[in-house]
Amino acid sequence: MTLNRFWILFFSTLAIGVATGFLNALFGWFRQYDLFYGVQVGGFVSATALMGFWGYLMLNFTMHSFLHPRLWTWIQLLIIAFTAYDMVYFRHLQFGGASVSWLPFIAYGLYPLLWAALVAAIKVQITNRRAYIPTLFFMYVFTLLEWYVALKANQAGITETIGIILMVCNAWLVLILSKILVKPKSQAAHEQKASNLGEVISP
Fold first, then answer.
1. 39 vs 15, 111, 165, 187, CA distance in Å?
2. Distance CA 10, CA 47 (A)
3. Closest of 142, 127, 129 to residue 80, by C-alpha
4. DSSP H/E element including 106
5. What is the pTM of this model?
6. What is the mean pLDDT of residues 143-165?
7. C-alpha distances in Å from residue 184, one per residue of 179, 181, 188, 195, 198
8. Is 124 exposed, middle or buried (0-12, 13-18, 19+ CB in 10 A)?
9. What is the C-alpha separation between 132 and 145, in angstroms, rounded?
């Protein structure tokens, strides 16, 4: 990735986060608060999403270096399942209780998973079917990791706002990545020629 493309990814994600925070504040989808506060939250959360995305890319690269791809796929599925269980069961223990219905906690754990599944399906259409599990893993597990502090605070309205901004920013990051990494035809042709030459002159 070139520096120009990095800045495109950075500023576009920042713009999407700020816009989402602004719209949340403007329409009061979860809670009424100042427009400038919405912009601030959107900017901060978009930066968090970017850091989480780089963290995921490093993790994915490292795991592919040490593990068989099929084993890493199964590990991701197990982590997804555990994360979903954690979102429902442990949140119910922390904020619910024996007399509180499980349904709100189940819904709270499942709607980020449904969003992740939708984004993963779109990613498959853009790239290939092998992208489904990695995208699902990033969109669900890493979004919840980035969301953890707000989830633990459990402040009505703010928690939901931060979650929506994270889900939108992470969807943008994972869907635009393949476009950002596409090389211009001239550069690709030059690299292919160099590769062919290397094959010819190599022993």
1. 10, 24, 11, 38
2. 8
3. 142
4. helix 103-126
5. 0.83
6. 85
7. 11, 9, 6, 16, 21
8. middle
9. 20
